[in-house]
Specification:
- Chain B: Its cofactor is FAD.
- Chain B: Its EC number is 1.8.1.9.
- Chain B: This is thioredoxin-disulfide reductase (NADPH).
- The complex is a heterodimer of chains A (about 525) and B (about 650).
- Chain A is α/β, with parallel strands linked by helices and about 525 residues long.
- Chain A is built from 14 helices and 25 strands.
- Chain A folds into three domains: about 140 residues, FAD/NAD(P)-binding domain; about 220 residues, FAD/NAD(P)-binding domain (3-Layer(bba) Sandwich); about 110 residues, FAD/NAD-linked reductase, C-terminal dimerisation domain (Enolase-like, domain 1), CATH 3.30.390.
- Chain A is about 30% helix and about 25% strand.
- In chain A, helix 1 packs parallel to helix 10 and helix 3 packs across helix 4.
- Chain A is globular, with a radius of gyration of 24 Å.
- By secondary structure, chain B is of the alpha/beta class.
- In chain B, strands 5, 6, 9, 10, 11, 12 and 23 form a seven-stranded mixed β-sheet that branches. Chain B has a five-stranded parallel β-sheet with strand order 14-21-15-16-17.
- In chain B, strand 16, helix 15 and strand 17 form a beta-alpha-beta unit.
- In chain B, helix 8 packs parallel to helix 17.
- The chains are: A alpha/beta (about 525), B alpha/beta (about 650).
- At the A-B interface, helix 3, strand 4, strand 5, helix 4 and helix 10 of A face helix 2, helix 10, strand 7, strand 8 and helix 11 of B.
- Strand 4 of chain A pairs antiparallel with strand 8 of chain B, so a sheet runs across the interface.
Chain lengths: ~525, ~650
């Protein structure tokens, strides 16, 4: 059994473009006149909801439209956007399920007598996760109601600079107008276009969390963080999982860390097909999928049989069915993302874009939330603060978690030059691993600093348990302009993994062995 | 390659300004005993601690080297000013004793002010005269005369350099070992004396001190065992299926943990050997200011001398002094290697040790009662302490408040036996009695300072608690004797603090840096079932220091994502920060109650070191979904009285 993540050729998934018929109904007022709302937010994800709620709190009349186009496999979900429904939340919960599997294995080292066999029931987990997600969907609706934000479950597209046409599931149309419009429609997983059977038989992260049955043996062509995270938890709950990748894992992240992440996954049972590109997928009579791929290293063709093929080859912004040209909003023709300035304004001054749909922004929930909140505060006079997109911390919830903030080693070297960068690093062993006899070969920390005293910290990279929790506070430290000296003056908390950060003494340049021994 | 520090410069030229008597570059101990010049390249690389030596300009380093040469190269070195009457008195004293001395008149050298400044860093004394005898900082005029009167001066003068060691450290715990390793790294001849006096239950252990053997390490591992028990319960909700019958085997856990500890003991011995530190498994006791008697397990006595000493003997659990306590009760010294499951347990005390032990014992499925005299977690934030306690109570730990034990009787021998405990109320005549298999005392710890001959060499201790008062460079009232770790008066009793203090002390003693140990904003974590991490001030302390109207407290309850599906308590985890309104809302207290509290707190501590403000918290982006991100979205102040229960994400 296996899950494959494939990194396929650049492809575009085409959405059926809705046609908002011109039979304009309702009181759509022409641009410049009295509008229905002060603020209209298109997209009820993390960013959109945060912006809407903040504006409502500042006394404005606000509407949110949200509509989930079913995935090619027919999966759909409720209010809250990617993070809540098909992103961070279900992902971290399934990651937790996999971690619990590790803990069950650890438990006998700690004296717990657990009778074999230990099995995992996908349906039970999926149901529990989905129930939690549904409770969040409900919570979001209640919150909008509490704050008197009008919510429309409609698919929106622009009619003109101030007006949007919304179509309900049943085809009913509504026109909404507003003084300010915020586009926060996010993105959706990309499907490859030139691979036979790709969209017919493959699924994406839009579907995996809502599967009723275990995906079984899975193959995923991919290199995105989603791919490794999914492959990690699927392996962790006992599925035979293969990741197919064309080039490097975790593009955009520190490459040393990325290769440690995959090394760890490999040593824990995830298979990797490196330098391979899928060419076609066929359904076998028994219902399994036969994947054929080109192995670029050997120049040969390979095949394998899987139950599920999961594409995690990137995401495309949800801009194609917005009729942006009607409003005059410009996008980057290469990736269809909306071009924005530091104020999050698009080419049309009263139309804004936040979150994953905006060009050059990190695709992360908390950035979208903060951007949305700050935007509302600026629009309605509470503050003039701009969103600071630098030093955004993030964590990849692979089996061994990877948290980072600031520059990667490569970026630091590019920006400042090799001779001006000092990297302190350590291989450490979490205390809990010792008794459990777990392998800690990939537990690694590195801090990228300027070499010139007091050695300003440029980036921090942490690979190990609870990486997200560890990095959060240090992200603040970096925000406060922490230097290496200051971090070293910080007293550790014993025994934790995060204390290893304040004990980083060995520089890469010294060539000394960075393995932490003793206490 | 990292830049190795430049080799020591040639002896400084006898600059015309440098003292009437000139400089006699005779014994320069640093180089004689394998200073940086003769150390292998690896050591040199470690020597270059970035940010410390680099902080000082070249010129300042040069002054420092000159001063060090003067101090080390002269039996008596007097830094004075030619017009100073106190300086004159000191010079007359030494002349009358017929002792040669060297003088540097700070008012007659070009860079006198500079010299005085560096001298202040070295000696922590701003004024002149500033006297050094046999490399030991004596003090000013008064202290020199005092030392002359009580004989200390004569002793110091007799002792020359013929000591066996540069440094002897008494106590091989976290602080002692870190100090020893650092000193050895700096090329010094170092000895560590470590001896574990068996507990009343006859428990004993290896090298490494409390933390490794009977503290942080086994505690966190047993805490982890309890967390895994919780994880087993959670795992069913996440789809894992296995036989319902899950039992815990105490012996299997203890053996695994003790095996890990043995490997650490071994690792320490190996490290000391590699670093060239002499390790002697004997009990150390001062017999003369520079001489120590080491008594081995077999009673064999050996004597060693050293120029400097560090006391790092730590603490041991306190007993109540009631009938039956030493005979039948155990302490944290015994619990972690107990060869049998303790069974129904009474934990006496409300220290963090008490609550942590009670927490993991309950987590392993035992029936646990905690007997508390007054408050939980004294000196910690009391709101947090109460929440820690109430979570434990909800999870099956019984609390018997305002009672103290009076007698402990053994009803039956065994492993474990059966004990009867009589206790009386602290508020009235009421008494209760209970039957337990094990009684664990966790009522505080006493310093190991009373049986080591400190009185013989005049090191002062606080008679009440046995703690050793030191100045801000960890120096006791006897100049060549220092103390670090849990024996210090008024300092946090934490492993990382001792390690940091030990390392910095060695660097200061042997000239690698002048950095002092900063005891403010020291973070800590209590590993109770719901972990509690904190840094900075408690709310009570903040109110006391800044007044209630000058601080703002932001707080919220939260529900970790992993707890939702597991169906664990909502609105239990809690985050709180305390800000100083009149200093840009600077964060002066940080408190979190929740899973992985230690991992979360660490980074925020680093941020507080950099002057973290509420605004910076607001400006920082969270990592989703984690518990730590809660601090980036704290909005509700305590003073507003608004509801902090959590809804939605």
């Amino acid at each position: 059994m296996a899950v494959v993540v494939l990194r396929g050729p650049r492809g575009h998934f085409r959405w059926r473009v809705p046609t908002c018929t011109r039979g304009v109904r309702g009181a759509a007022s022409p641009a410049g006149g009295q509008q229905d709302f002060d603020l209209l937010v298109i997209g009820g994800g993390s960013g959109g909801l945060a912006c809407a709620k903040e504006a409502a709190q500042l006394g404005k009349k606000v509407a949110v439209t949200d509509y989930v186009e079913p995935s090619p496999q027919g999966t759909r979900w409720g209010l809250g956007g990617t993070c809540v429904n098909v992103g961070c939340i279900p992902k971290k919960l399934m990651h937790q399920a996999a971690l619990l599997g590790d803990m069950i294995r650890d438990a006998h080292h700690y004296g717990w007598e657990v009778a074999q066999p230990v099995q995992h029931d996908w349906n039970k987990m999926a149901e529990a996760v989905q129930n939690h997600v549904k409770s969040l969907n409900w919570g979001h609706r209640v919150q909008l109601q509490d704050r008197k934000v009008k919510y429309f479950n409609i698919k929106a597209s622009f009619v003109d600079k101030h007006t949007v046409c919304g179509v309900t599931k049943s085809g009913k149309e509504t026109l909404l107008s507003a003084d300010h419009i915020v586009i926060a429609t996010g993105g959706r997983p990309k499907y490859p276009t030139h691979i036979e059977g790709a969209s017919e038989y493959g699924i994406t992260s839009d579907d995996i969390f809502w599967l009723k049955e275990s995906p079984g043996k899975t193959s995923k062509p991919a290199t995105a963080d989603v791919a490794l995270e999914c492959a990690g938890f699927l392996t962790g709950i006992g599925l035979d999982t293969t990741v197919m990748m064309r080039s490097i894992p975790l593009r955009g992240f520190d490459q040393q860390m990325s290769s440690l992440v995959t090394e760890h996954m490999e040593s824990h049972g995830t298979r990797f097909l490196k330098g391979c590109v899928p060419s076609r997928i066929e359904k076998l009579p028994a219902g399994q999928l036969q994947v054929t791929w080109d192995d670029h290293a050997s120049g040969k063709e390979g095949t394998g049989i899987f139950d599920t093929v999961l594409w995690a080859i990137g995401r495309v912004p949800e801009t194609r069915n917005l009729n942006l040209e009607k409003a005059g909003v410009n996008t980057n023709p290469k990736n269809q993302k909306i071009l924005v300035d530091a104020q999050e304004a698009t080419s049309v001054p009263h139309i804004f874009a936040i979150g994953d749909v905006a060009e050059g922004r990190p695709e992360l929930t908390p950035t979208a939330i903060m951007a949305g909140k700050l935007l509302a505060q600026r629009l309605y006079g509470k503050s003039s603060a701009l969103m600071d997109y630098s030093n955004v911390p993030t964590t990849v919830f692979t089996p061994l978690e990877y948290g980072c903030v600031g520059l990667s080693e490569e970026e630091a070297v590019t920006v400042h030059g090799q001779e001006h960068v000092e990297v302190y690093h350590a291989y450490y062993k979490p205390l809990e691993f010792t008794v459990a006899e777990r392998d800690a070969s990939q537990c690694y920390i590195k801090m990228v600093c300027l070499r010139e005293p007091p050695q300003l910290v440029l980036g921090l990279h942490f690979l190990g348990p609870n990486a997200g929790e560890v990095i959060q506070g240090f992200a603040l430290g970096i925000k406060c302009g922490a230097s290496y000296t200051q971090v070293m003056q910080t007293v550790g908390i014993h025994p934790t993994c995060s204390e290893e950060v304040v004990k980083l003494r060995i520089s890469k340049r010294s060539g000394l062995d960075p393995t932490v021994t003793g206490c | 390659m990292e830049q190795p520090p430049s080799p020591p410069p040639p002896p400084p030229p006898t600059s015309p300004g440098l003292g009437k008597a000139g400089v006699v570059p005779s014994r320069r101990l640093g180089t004689v005993r394998g200073g940086p010049m003769s150390s292998p390249p690896e050591r040199r690389a470690r020597l270059s601690s970035p940010g410390t030596s680099r902080q000082f300009s070249e010129a300042r380093e040069e002054v420092r080297r000159r001063l060090r040469d003067l101090i080390e190269g002269n039996r008596v070195m007097i830094f004075s000013k030619s017009y100073c009457p106190h300086s004159t008195r000191v010079k007359e004293l030494f002349s009358s004793l017929g002792i040669d001395y060297n003088i540097l008149e700070l008012d007659q050298v070009d860079d006198g002010a500079n010299v005085q400044e560096v001298l202040t860093e070295i000696s922590n004394q701003k004024t002149v005269p500033n006297i050094f005898v046999n490399k030991v900082h004596m003090g000013g005029c008064d202290r020199t005369f005092q030392a002359h009167q009580n004989g200390l001066l004569q002793k110091l003068l007799q002792e020359d350099v013929a000591h066996d060691y540069d440094l002897i450290i008494i106590g091989g715990g976290s602080g002692g070992l870190s100090c020893a390793k650092e000193a050895a790294n700096l090329g010094k001849k170092v000895m560590v004396l470590d001896f574990v006096v068996p507990s009343p239950q006859d428990t004993t252990w290896g090298l490494g001190g409390t933390c490794v053997n009977v503290g942080c390490v086994p505690k966190k591992l047993m805490h982890q065992a309890a967390l895994l028990g919780q994880a087993l319960q959670d795992s069913r909700k996440f789809g894992w299926a296995y036989n319902q019958q899950v039992k815990h085997n105490w012996e299997a856990m203890t053996e695994a943990i003790q095996n890990h500890i043995s490997s650490l003991n071994w690792g320490y011995r190996l490290t000391l050997r590699e670093e060239g530190v002499a390790y002697v498994n004997s009990y150390g006791e001062f017999v003369e200011p520079h001489k120590i008697k080491a008594t081995s397990k077999k009673g064999q006595e050996t004597f060693y001398t050293a120029a400097k000493f560090v006391i790092a003997t730590g603490e041991r659990p306190r007993y109540l002094g009631i009938p039956g306590d030493k005979e039948y009760c155990i302490t944290s010294d015994d619990l972690f290697s107990l060869p049998y499951c303790p069974g129904r347990t009474l934990v006496v005390g409300a220290s963090y040790v008490a609550l942590e032990c009670a927490g993991f014992l309950a987590g392993l499925g035992l029936d646990v009662t905690v007997m508390v005299r007054s408050i939980l977690l004294r000196d910690f934030d009391q709101e947090m302490a109460e929440k820690v306690g109430s979570y434990m109570e909800q999870h099956g730990v019984k609390f018997l408040r305002k009672f103290i034990p009076v007698t402990v009787q053994q009803l039956e021998k065994g492993s474990p036996g059966i004990l009867k405990v009589m206790a009386r109320s602290t508020e009235g005549p009421e008494t209760v009695e209970g039957i337990y298999n094990t009684v664990l005392l966790a009522v505080g710890r006493d310093s190991c300072t009373r049986k080591m001959g400190l009185e013989k060499i005049g090191v002062k201790i606080n008679e009440k608690n046995g703690k050793i008062p030191v100045n801000d460079v960890e120096q006791t009232n006897v100049p060549h004797v220092y103390a670090i770790g849990d024996v210090l008066e008024g300092k946090p009793e934490l492993t990382p603090v001792a390690i940091q203090a030990g390392k910095l002390l060695a660097r200061r003693l042997f000239g690698a840096s002048s950095e002092k140990c900063d005891y403010t904003n020291v973070p800590t974590t209590v590993f109770t079932p719901l972990e509690y991490g904190c840094c900075g001030l408690s709310e009570e302390k903040a109110i006391e220091v800044y007044n209630k109207e000058n601080i703002e407290v932001y707080h919220t309850l939260f529900w970790p994502l992993e707890w939702t599906v597991a169906g664990r308590d909502n609105n239990t985890c809690y985050a709180k920060i305390i800000c100083n309104k009149f200093d840009s809302d600077r964060v002066i207290g940080f408190h979190i109650l929740g899973p992985n509290a230690g991992e979360i707190t660490q980074g925020f501590t680093a941020a507080m070191k950099c002057g973290l403000t509420k605004q910076q918290l607001n400006d920082t982006i969270g990592i989703h979904p984690t518990c730590g991100e809660i601090f980036t979205t704290l909005q509700i102040t305590k003073s507003s009285g608004l509801d902090i229960t959590q809804k939605g994400c």
